[in-house]
Design goal:
Blueprint (H helix, E strand, L loop, with lengths): L11 H6 E5 L4 E7 L4 E4 L1 H7 L16 E5 L3 E16 L25 E6 L21 E4 L8 E10 L2 E8 L10 E4 L4 E10 L12 E6 H7 L15 H11 L3 H15 L10 H9 L4 H13 L17 H15 L7 H11 L7 H8 L12 H8 L12 H15 L3 H16 L7 H18 L12 E9 L4 E9 L5 E11 L1 H14 L9 E6 L24 H4 L2 E5 L4 H13 L6 E3 L6 H10 L5 E4 L6 H10 L4 E5 L5 H11 L7 H14 L11 E5 L16 E2 L2
Helix pairs in contact: 4-8, 5-6, 5-7, 6-7, 7-8, 9-13, 10-11, 11-12, 12-13, 12-14, 18-19
């Protein structure tokens, strides 16, 4: 039995697949066994093992060996692995592999690539087994092991957000040190690897040594996207529905020759060893169940045999019989029980993802709402590939013969055709993909054609394909990291647009003044944002301790020919908190649901006592919009109480307090939908500036914290964003 991890639980499958990568004398990182000869790790770990710079891009020389160990299987035995040239993906800052790019600046990391596959000179020792893989699941705790192979230290973390190519995870136990990189993240509940550790936050200077609030991992979908020639990974074996699957296959493949042909075809597709003459129905099913997307590959192999796409073998007449369609339908139904979330083969999924990467006319979240109008709660998705991956697991509605996955692809194609030009060619490719895939999913071509015609007619009526082409304005998101006492800053600036773009466009890791921050925001607005009839929203993300910063009054003076730039006047500017936690989410969600009907709440001078503020917010558990009217020195504490309680919107005056100010601010938001509050605040600031004689106008020192339901935080680093690779 493999040794237990630090908390006493046994994860034998993790231990059998865990690999330590060494530089000859010590472990520098980790990896995970994919097959008996292949190991997956990070490219920067390989670079470190070879004594190269961690960001070095050229492929290591073919003859260079990397020393490896399986510490939980054969702790004293050294193995040698060599980089598989076709699967070398060094760290890079550009999304597309092979594109021209520069190395990241000091203190920053690239967000793409950083993967390598090593081939062992000899098979892994007895006792080692390839790891089972699954895609990660939000809120499922995972563990990681240190490369030395000791049971201590281990790391416990919970996924916070998936923003391809990385997953961000909050550390809930253990410390991060060198040696975790490249190692597998293990989901104990599901007994599978869900990602590779790639980076971590730098510990705060005044924090405990080695502590990290966040680690980052490369998830399975990103691995598959980066390494299209990677053999399908193993998955945990499934038991539900297997006996029905065996029975259905026996009816469809009654001849041994047919079974052997399908088994050989499936083994070749999956890169696994065929059983040859020993192949039977049981070995065919076992081969499919042990590999990611193996069941869809099995269906495709059987469909190819049944439809006579390949040259028939002996006894093929039984398969060409007209009655095979009923048996095929039964096989499809059983397969969806055995593998409910996977309907596409690996090639079908990769082909679709390649097309979706070029699509710009459909917004992922709106697409989900359109295709699944009756779903109680939809997951947050960051792109069309993730949206269709989610829809793949949903069955067809009884009244709709076209499953949600194909509905989504058809809608995306119609939307792309509406853009004209290259969009029409892309639409043709999407239609061809549906035409090839539909029959293998048991969907009649006529049903797809009718659905596409209905969507096109709907598009002509509404002027949009209703796939969610958004009219929302773009956003410039400034992730601000002030340097005490708050006069100098470092930052990252992100751009979010309705067409699916959400990326960092500008970084500053040396301290600059507030004026330089505003100048950078103005530069991004001019060069990165395609202006919308409604100007872009500027969002400053700051930790709760820095909400006192008057970012909404900052300005860029400009020159003689330039009237300057006053963000809070020229456009809507809001403060947003980077301090949201899982503990505040329940309150935030409850207040979101109640926003249309909940009344506005005032926290006055009595709320300066933290216990009183907390009690009031508990009593008014549905209030999402709060006016703070207490002395300035208490603002920080009250604002923190609001954030912890999940409040969305807080209005306060930075100088005055009392009944008059509270009444003015309540009147300002009276009858205003929460989405209109940023514009109402902007107008009040403009009115105050337009009336210089009225020094008492409440708009002069009016501030707004606005974490509404459309809160889109920078995905990778919600707190201090300096990263390191452990």
């Amino acid at each position: 039995m493999s040794p237990a991890l630090s908390d006493g639980s046994s994860d034998a499958a993790l231990h059998r697949a865990f690999v330590s990568v060494r530089d000859g004398t010590r472990p520098v990182g980790a990896g995970v066994l994919l097959t008996d000869r292949l190991v997956l790790t990070c490219a920067h770990v390989v670079n470190s093992a070879l004594g190269r710079d961690r960001f070095e891009r050229p492929t290591p020389a073919q003859g260079q060996g990397i020393r490896l160990r399986l510490p939980h299987v054969a702790a004293d035995r050294d193995l040698t692995g060599r980089v598989v040239t076709a699967m070398w993906r060094p760290p890079r800052s550009e999304p597309v592999a092979g594109a021209a790019g520069t190395l990241p600046p000091a203190g920053m990391l690239p967000y793409h690539g950083d993967l390598a596959v090593l081939e062992l000179d000899e098979p892994a020792p007895a006792g080692a087994e390839p790891a089972p893989f699954l895609t990660h699941r939000d809120r499922n705790e995972v563990v990681a092991l240190w490369a030395s192979g000791h049971t201590l230290p281990t790391l416990r973390a919970v996924p916070r957000v998936s923003t391809p190519p990385w997953i961000a995870l909050d550390v809930v136990g253990g410390t991060v040190t060198e040696g975790f990189s490249g190692g597998p993240l293990w989901d104990r509940e599901r007994q599978a690897v869900v990602g590779l550790v790639v980076a971590a936050h730098v510990a705060a200077p005044d924090g405990p040594p080695g502590r990290a609030g966040t680690v980052y991992a490369i998830g399975l979908p990103s691995v598959e996207a980066e390494l299209p020639t990677l053999p399908p990974v193993s998955v945990p074996m499934s038991a539900r529905g297997v006996q029905r699957l065996l029975a259905a296959l026996e009816r469809l493949l009654p001849e041994p020759a047919a079974v052997m042909e399908c088994e050989q075809r499936l083994a070749a597709r999956l890169g696994r060893q065929s059983a040859g003459q020993a192949a039977d129905i049981h070995s065919l099913v076992a081969l499919a169940l042990g590999v990611r997307r193996g069941v869809p590959e099995l269906l495709d192999a059987v469909h190819t045999r049944l439809t006579g796409s390949a040259a028939p073998a002996a006894g093929a007449g039984a398969f060409a019989a007209p009655g095979w369609m009923s048996g095929w339908d039964q096989l499809l139904r059983v397969a969806r029980v055995v593998s409910p979330g996977e309907h596409l083969t690996l090639r079908q999924r990769r082909d679709l993802n390649g097309l979706l990467a070029q699509c710009r006319a459909a917004e992922p979240a709106a697409l989900l709402r359109t295709v699944l109008p009756y779903a109680d709660e939809l997951p947050v998705v960051s792109g069309l590939a993730e949206a269709t991956d989610t829809l793949e697991g949903y069955p067809s509605h009884p009244d709709q013969p076209v499953p949600p996955l194909l509905q989504a692809v058809v809608r995306i194609g119609v939307a792309e055709r509406g853009t004209g030009g290259a969009g029409a060619d892309l639409s043709d490719d999407l239609d061809a993909w549906v035409e090839m895939t539909g029959p293998r999913l048991g969907v009649a071509a006529g049903a797809v054609d009718q659905f596409r015609a209905d969507v096109r007619a709907e598009s002509r009526r509404t002027g949009t394909a209703r796939t969610g082409r958004t009219t929302a304005p773009p956003r410039v998101q400034v992730e601000l990291l002030p340097v005490p006492p708050g006069h100098r800053f470092t930052y990252q600036i992100w751009v979010w647009t309705g067409d699916g773009r959400h990326e960092v466009v500008l970084t500053q890791d040396t301290e600059v003044s507030s004026q330089q921050v505003v100048e950078a925001v103005r530069h991004v607005l001019r060069t990165e944002v395609r202006e919308h009839p409604e100007p872009a929203l500027v969002e400053f993300f700051v930790a709760p301790a820095w909400l006192r910063l008057e970012v909404d009054t900052w300005e860029f003076p400009g020159g003689a020919d330039d009237g300057g730039f006053f963000p809070g006047i020229a456009r809507r500017v809001v403060l947003r908190s980077s301090g949201r936690t899982r503990e505040t989410y329940a309150g935030w969600k409850r207040r979101t649901d109640a926003l249309p009907s909940s009344r506005r709440l005032v926290l006055d001078q009595r709320s300066a006592d933290p216990a009183v503020a907390q009690a009031i917010l508990e009593v008014h558990s549905e209030a999402g919009i709060v006016v703070v009217s207490c002395e300035r020195k208490h603002h920080g504490m009250v604002l923190r109480q609001c954030i912890q309680a999940g409040v969305h919107t807080v209005l306060w005056h930075r100088e005055d307090h009392g009944e008059r100010i509270a009444a003015d601010l309540l009147a300002l938001v009276e009858g205003v939908d929460h989405t209109g509050i940023p514009e109402a605040v902007r107008m009040e600031r403009a009115k105050a500036l337009a009336d210089p004689e009225s020094a008492a106008h409440h708009g002069r020192r009016l501030s707004l914290l606005h974490d509404g339901p459309d809160h889109r935080p920078p995905p990778l680093a919600p707190d201090a964003w300096a990263l390191t690779q452990p």
